[in-house]
Amino acid sequence: MATELNRVERQTPPDDEMVSIFVMGKEYRVPDALTIMKAIEYAGYHFIRGCGCRGGACGACATVYRTADNYRIKVGLACQTLIEPGMHVTQIPFYPANKAIYDVSEAEPTVEEVLKHYPEIARCLCCEVCTRACPQDLEVMYYIQAALRGDVKEVSRLSFECIMCGLCVSRCPAELMHYNVAILCRRLYARYGMKRAEHLANRVREIEEGKFDEELDELVRMDEKDLVRAYESRDFEEA
Amino acid sequence: MPYSEAMMESVAKVEATRPQRLAEAKEGKHYPRLDQDEIEQILKKYHPDYRDGTKRGLEVGAGKGTVVPNELAELLEARPMLNPGAVDLEQIDLDTDVLVVGGGGAGAAAALTAAADGVDVTIATKLRLGDSNTVMAEGGIQAADKEIDSPTLHFLDVMGGGHFTNDRELVRALVRDAPAIIEWLEDMGVLFDKDEEDGTMRTLHGGGTSRKRMHSAGDMTGAEIMRTLRDEVRNHPDEIRVLEFSPAVELVLDDAGRVAGAVLYNLETERYLVVRAKTVILATGGFGRLHIQGFPTTNHYGATADGIVLAYRAGAGLRFLEATQFHPTGAVFPEQNVGLLITEKVRGAGAQVVNVDGEQFVYALETRDVESSAIIRECQERDNGVVTPTGRKGCWLDSPMVEALRGAGTMQKDFPAKYRQFMRHDIDISELPMLIYPTLHYQNGGVAVSPDAEAERENLYLAGEVTGGIHGTNRLMGNSLLDILVYGRRAGRNAAKKSKETQPGRLTLEHVEAFVKEIEGSGIDTKLTSPMLLPDYAGKLG
Ligand SMILES: Cc1cc2nc3c(=O)[nH]c(=O)nc-3n(C[C@H](O)[C@H](O)[C@H](O)COP(=O)(O)OP(=O)(O)OC[C@H]3O[C@@H](n4cnc5c(N)ncnc54)[C@H](O)[C@@H]3O)c2cc1C
Ligand code: SF4
Ligand code: SF4
Ligand code: FES
Questions:
Q1: Does domain B67-323+444-514 have CATH number 3.40.50.150?
Q2: Is the ipTM of this complex over 0.85?
Q3: Ligand 3 pocket test: which of A94, A156, A163 has the largest number of ligand atoms within 8 Å of its C-beta?
Q4: 3.90.700.10, 1.10.760.10, 2.60.40.10, 3.40.50.1010: which CATH number matches B5-50+325-440?
């Protein structure tokens, strides 16, 4: 079978490039410089949970670990964090978090609305543990504080890159559900805080009125030569 | 030092040619676009689709003779993982009106739309709800909603991108529904990039577009859409039941030959579950994890072509699977990032593609197949690629140009996810270019559907990457996020309507039994079973 010319078959490296890591307490020898995810696979695991996009985008692979000679608990994404010799890892494939049920079309972008669904955010101790835990380096504590003020715009700005991995939730002494608070605020801001796109509403109306139907029908029926010609004679909007 | 010494020498050459390239770019000059003849030639000679021995005609099934990549053919000619005798179809575990198989963007849109029509909906998905290719989409979603644009121009761009092979009725529905889809998302509270003052959408070009119609939400457009859809699905717990880690392993038919449910497999308890449904929507996404021709992929863990396997066994037709999309700009360095996507929007924002000497060899916004072919030619034939310490080759994507053209800080502001991903390896992409090579990205073809999202099998609907026809042999950026929502909504609406008019008969898996017999009769000697469900990297160095 043909294979990609640029494919590189990676060989198991020599022994001095192998390191020990401990997966849930069990020792495995794995090549250095792998991500935690690939190291666990190399060790022989076949993921069901704890693995999604494999690219830092989905938040499926929350992992807690300790490194040698350091008492601190560390957390990160298994698909993005490189292994260290002697580290102990375990994944957190699921961490419970309740979600408010709401109808965005009837909600309001106010502090009352946010507190109605998540009154416990008032318990925040301002300890910044959530912020330190966040693999996206978000100012998690500040977005919770912004939510407490009902500043949904600021929550949107500070939490936009949240991938809902739940690491903040797993560490918070006040037992908050940060990422669910954040998405509520973002949806409220997008729906009520931002201006609607007028050109969009106009175009939707034009389409409903059938403005483009004839042109489109014509293109659907056109013979291919004419279609290619129409394509090649398009003008381009400047970049 | 982020890059090796040899790589840094090449970076110095890129920096040396940059001022000149920038000056030209500012005057609106760019490397000449290829004409249709040149396009045909470069594709034939360098595009992976044209390599000998990489595809073959299927030997079994209703679509015998259909040409597909070898890796997919092996799964379509494999034995069903479910032994039909192992489940008792009289024991129905769950009855539902509409069963949606797949919890990505297409599935979530279908479920919300069907539920809004007052029917009982079940989503069965393989991983968590939202673990999908949708969540990974970075660049954007197309819709012709600006004054200077029109659905007609959008139609032409889509057709040209697909080399005029697309199913035109499907394209018509795609471009006509597009603005309403953006409005649906706006209503739901999706944070599009907009002008703060007047709400105008900030739109950009993508490869092959004649108008700037790429709508975005930072460089997390798919994630923003997916998490909002997921949140909305979860706002309807009484109307939409969600079964995670429960992939469908076979469609179930009834005695009249109509689709009437599916057998699910609980990945954790390893038990089968029989679901009877009045209508079924397949929205299982693409096949990147088959690693066609050994390419690395941008796709998520569950992109294993299951839906194609299921639909094919149930007698549905396949289209355009002979054409695979390779994204021109996959990362090749550092090794941990290999295959990961660098969105086309970086080129849309002004970054050029240059070789080891810092020279351009192709216009940066050719369609993906053409751009990929040019990069492969540059690295493999002309030997103008940059070699990494592990022996991979690539060309530079000159991201610092974006800073010069659009202001300092733009890379971090507009591409925060990518910026962070490279910073983890000490590569600051506002100062250093990224090394890229084509990566396996998208399944252009799939199961045939009508503009109503119906398959050739009664009571079966499909939406999203699992389908084929909308994009012909090549999709343009931003039209997939669009198609999954356009056809997700259409499938949801039509499957809900149909579910009110149909009653499943006696359930059967006879089609699976017949398929097994056909494989045995054909002399195919296979040890594989399918659907694959999850790729197996255990014990391997990926
Ligand atoms: C990195 C990346 C970037 C992209 N960028 C863009 C972009 O900027 N613009 C654009 O338009 N497009 C983009 N695309 C393409 C686009 O994101 C996808 O084509 C599209 O999201 C597919 O949506 P879908 O719902 O059909 O499939 P998916 O979103 O992949 O969802 C399929 C779902 O089905 C589930 N599933 C699979 N098999 C089974 C089974 N047997 N039973 C039950 N469930 C199953 C999966 O787990 C998954 O949840 C990108 C794709 C990738 C990978
Ligand atoms: S961890 Fe919890 S209590 Fe501490 S700052 Fe964050 S939200 Fe507040
Ligand atoms: S805010 Fe919390 S859930 Fe979101 S990315 Fe950071 S740690 Fe993960
Ligand atoms: S697998 Fe998606 S973030 Fe790690």
A1: no
A2: yes
A3: A163
A4: 3.90.700.10
